[in-house]
Amino acid sequence: xxxxxxxxxxxxxxxxxxxxxxxxxxxxxxxxxxxxxxxxxxxxxxxxxxxxxxxxxxxxxxxxxxxxxxxxxxxxxxxxxxxxxxxxxxxxxxxxxxxxxxxxxxxxxxxxxxxxxxxxxxxxxxxxxxxxxxxxxxxxxxxxxxxxxxxxxxxxxxxxxxxxxxxxxxxxxxxxxxxxxxxxxxxxxxxxxxxxxxxxxxxxxxxxxxxxxxxxxxxxxxxxxxxxxxxxxxxxxxxxxxxxxxxxxxxxxxxxxxxxxxxxxxxxxxxxxxxxxxxxxxxxxxxxxxxxxxxxxxxxxx
Amino acid sequence: xxxxxxxxxxxxxxxxxxxxxxxxxxxxxxxxxxxxxxxxxxxxxxxxxxxxxxxxxxxxxxxxxxxxxxxxxxxxxxxxxxxxxxxxxxxxxxxxxxxxxxxxxxxxxxxxxxxxxxxxxxxxxxxxxxxxxxxxxxxxxxxxxxxxxxxxxxxxxxxxxxxxxxxxxxxxxxxxxxxxxxxxxxxxxxxxxxxxxxxxxxxxxxxxxxxxxxxxxxxxxxxxxxxxxxxxxxxxxxxxxxxxxxxxxxxxxxxxxxxxxxxxxxxxxxxxxxxxxxxxxxxxxxxxxxxxxxxxxxxxxxxxxxxxxxxxxxxxxxxxxxxxxxxxxxxxxxxxxxxxxxxxxxxxxxxxxxxxxxxxxxxxxx
Lengths: 302, 366
What we know:
The complex is a heterodimer of chains A (302) and B (366). By secondary structure, chain A is an all-alpha fold. Chain A has a domain at 76-264: MetI-like (MetI-like fold, Orthogonal Bundle). Chain A has 13 helices and 2 strands, in the order H-E-E-H-H-H-H-H-H-H-H-H-H-H-H. Chain A has helices at 2-38, 68-73, 78-110, 113-124, 131-142, 147-155, 168-192, 196-204, 209-220, 222-237, 241-246, 254-264, 268-301, and strands at 53-56, 59-63. In chain A, a hairpin with a 2-residue loop joins strand 1 and strand 2. In chain A, helix 1 packs across helix 13 (268-301), helix 3 (78-110) packs antiparallel against helix 10 and helix 8 runs antiparallel to helix 9 (209-220). The radius of gyration of chain A is 25 Å and the shape is globular. Chain B has 366 residues and is an alpha/beta fold. Chain B is 44% helix and 15% strand. Chain B is built from 17 helices and 11 strands. Chain B has helices spanning 3-22, 41-49, 61-69, 82-91, 111-117, 141-147, 157-160, 162-168, 179-189, 199-209, 223-230, 240-252, 284-294, 297-307, 322-325, 334-337, 349-364, and strands at 27-33, 52-58, 77-78, 127-140, 173-175, 218-219, 235-239, 259-262, 269-276, 310-311, 341-342. In chain B, strands 4, 5, 6, 7, 8, 9, 10 and 11 form an 8-stranded mixed sheet that branches. In chain B, strands 2-1-3 form a 3-stranded parallel sheet. In chain B, strand 1, helix 2 (41-49) and strand 2 (52-58) form a beta-alpha-beta unit. The longest helix of chain B is centred in the N-terminal third of the chain and has 20 residues, at 3-22. The N and C termini of chain B lie far apart (64 Å). At the A-B interface, helix 3 and helix 12 of A face helix 3, strand 6, helix 11 and helix 17 of B.
């Protein structure tokens, strides 16, 4: 009896420990390494930074850590500006994803059950092609002599090609396109669970459809909205490839700023400091989201 | 797991390592710039030596540098630009000394080029030149003429004169995404010492570049090749070899574009790309054989034909296709050559920092 209980307990612990082990190994350890580099100084050599701990004869001789790299970040407003620009682009893209994704998710959730899986498949289908190829495809669509301009010129809607590629607009289009499925899927999951009788009840009580949507559907899908927004917002803040390929370089997002320091200066410590600062600065809005989600779920339960 | 099994595994690992040390696998891992070799070079090398080549490409020196600086990259031959990248990497101990006894064709490399390279690599111990080209401007002849009939098509003014840039803005101007190209070019345009690495020189260049930023469609080191060929941009600051490829593609494109290339009269920077062997290269023997093979006149002539970059093996010139050998932007005439300058040596860390920051600001200015 006792051994069986112990075994069950042990199994439960293992199940809980695995994700922690995963996070520890693939998130915490790399983060600590980056944190360590951010406190050291550059040098010419492999690796291109001074060791933090000096060990001689198996004993720790000296610890050389400095916060100078963090001070560098705030020398002027370049990186602070990049941070806010990243937040703005990610925030507006998230909003656009929500506005486009919500009707899509609602449409799929309200579709006949046999059609739903096909519609969901269509949402996931782009993932079967490489992300990079899809971004390149957008370059082909958006460029001056690209598909979009050819279509608009052909229809006579414009007489000069629109300049979209290499501007902020192209970055927004790229991010919204790439991250839309991450918004639709959690929204669908929460909308699909919604009990249709609730809407019927609302209608019986005299609520017009828009009122029923605002009073019933929207609040009940709040967890999906928060989850989808997180899934879009967080990776979009650190996005590097889309601004690099579609943007004109005047969109200085954090990912690009980090690459500059890392590659052009070969300054790994300063780049690590930037990465750590960015993570810390990102944790703030995330904590806010989390707080919001907790409150919304509290409301939903009450 | 029992102890015997562990011991067995350990012994067999040791045996494996020993055999690897004795005889190299007949494999070579090459990491080169994209579009930077002739179509049949690798096949010929494999046919002659039996060494299989794993070929991988990059688009910016920075990509190569970050892989090398992380330690064991697994590559046997890499192609860094001589300065500042190769120079800094040599200092950092990234490369192994070349064994010239295994590269007899190195004797055919132009002495003048080697002397120039010895400034960043004393005694030419760590690298040999692969290809070289000036940095210039590619432009769409018809589109530029339509907007500005008297465009200064022999000068950096195409990029840096505010009046010209404002006129040509609408058809698209691109600038290379590296201060090590744009800053010397601007200094040359201003009539200053293009190799100066002082804060005053940097500020003078950046102050002039900053207000020009809204005229530039983008700041990028790769996109211009395709965009210039397709007519999506009309003025591109670029490496002459790339511009030559772009010009060739533009002729084959569906909508033919007429591309011109200029090396500014104020002088332009020359980049030499090196061949070097990382210190921890897994196949150093094959790497030496490969470098020797590349430096053979017929092989490097074919690469020059295909890439539009000049090489540093004089014996190869009679074998280069006539239209390439006579092309004044690939092999510039003496009076143009006299004005060319090499990239400045690696700068001190503090200067690097200030420069990158200024460059980030320039690139993201609206």
